[in-house]
Specification:
By secondary structure, the chain is an alpha/beta fold. Helix content is 42%, strand content 21%. It contains 16 helices and 14 strands. An 8-stranded mixed beta barrel has the order 6-7-9-10-11-12-13-14, surrounded by 4 helices. The chain is globular. 43% of the residues are buried.
Length: 397
């Protein structure tokens, strides 16, 4: 594992010293500065794995710093801190995310040392709300031919993140998350190769590979053949909008279900809110056919797109998945809690199941229970697991 380094920029020297002390207490090297010039020099020469920055500074504000970090293609995990209100913090986080930066958390001042320690020990390549990792760097030079060869050679593998019923904590199923184990590059996260697959006309092949791997694992590890439909363990699989115009997709998935002995109702295909609305007519055709054959459909990252309510009602979804950005900030943001409540009420009124992703603390899980959210997933419950680990989880309940 690479040595972890925290670089802090804050105009309050005491806060910089406090953060440095907390980082060093858990074995992370730390350096603090209040000067933008020194900060960017350290970014280039010291190459921190984590950055903590204050939004409100006299010489160069935090948003300007974030924009400059994006220009430099900084891959460090970034923690935004400030004493401004939660809505401004959330807006800054969204802005940084739009620039492609890897935001691992926001800290309102005064902050909790325990929360800072938790953020510093979070995997920098944590999976984001798309089901793919939010990473930059070594994957940017991936060639289409290299990725095609990787798919052909069976270098794509899956991790499985458990989903549980909020009210009981019992296992409800898993979400399949793609990884590329490259002999040359090591483990490559999806945020690095999914854009290559989409731009290089490989996303359909990659989607089918992920689906086949997930179904093969299900047939070996999740034997629900004797269970009632209400007790089935499900598998969620992300599909790209580019898959929606593939006339062979439905036939392939139906054939594979028969091959592996998997009931269609156990598969949940997840589409992001924005991708589902790109071509509503084509989406409506394919999604209706999938639902007719018994498959489940989830609208992922709900609340972050710009679709109309009419389009949500027109498309035959069975589940709404609340975007992790709202869930992860629920414990400190009244606005996020209000959005979560509205989405759950919307889902209930439309007869849709609701799933919250990004659950990382017990307080948020309790809030979801109060609102009668059906399902939850996130690091509080479990990180993404290898096939063997997920099999053990399923066996032990």
């Amino acid at each position: 594992m690479n040595e972890q380094k925290l670089l802090i920029i804050d105009d309050d020297d005491m806060i910089g010293q406090t953060m440095s002390y907390i980082a060093r207490s858990i074995g992370i090297e730390a350096h603090a500065t209040s000067q933008p010039d020194e900060f960017f020099e350290q970014v280039e020469s010291w190459k921190p794995t984590h950055i903590a920055l204050d939004l409100v500074m006299p010489d160069m504000d935090g948003v300007e710093v974030l924009v400059e970090l994006a220009k430099r293609e900084c891959s460090a995990g970034i923690i935004i801190t400030s004493g401004v209100g939660p809505r401004v913090l959330d807006a800054a986080r969204r802005s940084a995310g739009e620039h492609g930066l890897n935001i691992i958390g926001v800290l309102s001042k005064p902050f909790s040392p325990a929360l800072l320690r938790q953020m510093l020990t979070t995997e920098v390549n944590a999976v984001d709300g798309s089901g793919f990792a939010s990473t930059r760097g070594k994957g940017r030079d991936i060639e289409v031919g290299e990725l095609a060869e990787a798919i052909e050679n069976g270098e794509i593998e899956l991790a499985y993140q458990p989903k549980v019923w909020c009210n009981s904590g019992l296992l409800a199923g898993f979400e399949a998350l793609a990884r590329w184990r490259s002999p040359q590059r090591g483990m490559v996260m999806p945020g690095q190769f999914i854009p290559v697959a989409e731009s290089g006309d490989l996303i359909k092949r990659l989607t089918l590979e992920v689906m086949d791997l997930a179904m093969e694992w299900m047939s070996e590890s999740l034997d629900d053949s004797q269970a009632d439909e209400d007790d089935w363990l499900s598998m969620s699989i992300n599909i790209s909008a580019l898959t929606l115009d593939d006339p062979h997709f439905i036939n392939h998935v139906t054939t594979q279900c028969k091959r592996f002995g998997i009931a269609p109702g156990r598969l949940i295909f997840e589409l992001t809110e924005t991708s589902a609305m790109q071509d509503p007519v084509t989406s409506l055709d394919l999604l209706t056919r999938l639902r007719m054959k018994g498959f489940q459909l989830s609208i992922d990252d709900f609340g972050t797109g710009y679709s109309s309510m009419l389009q949500l009602v027109r498309l035959p979804f069975s589940e709404i998945k609340i975007d992790r950005s709202f869930v992860m900030s629920a414990s400190r943001s009244t606005e996020s809690r209000a959005v979560i409540r509205s989405i759950i009420e919307l889902g209930r009124s439309l007869g849709l199941r609701t799933t919250a992703e990004g659950v990382e603390d017990a307080e948020t899980l309790e809030y979801l229970k109060e609102l009668r959210c059906e399902l939850a997933q996130g690091y509080l419950i479990s990180k993404p697991l290898s096939g063997a680990e997920a099999s053990s989880w399923a066996e032990n309940g």
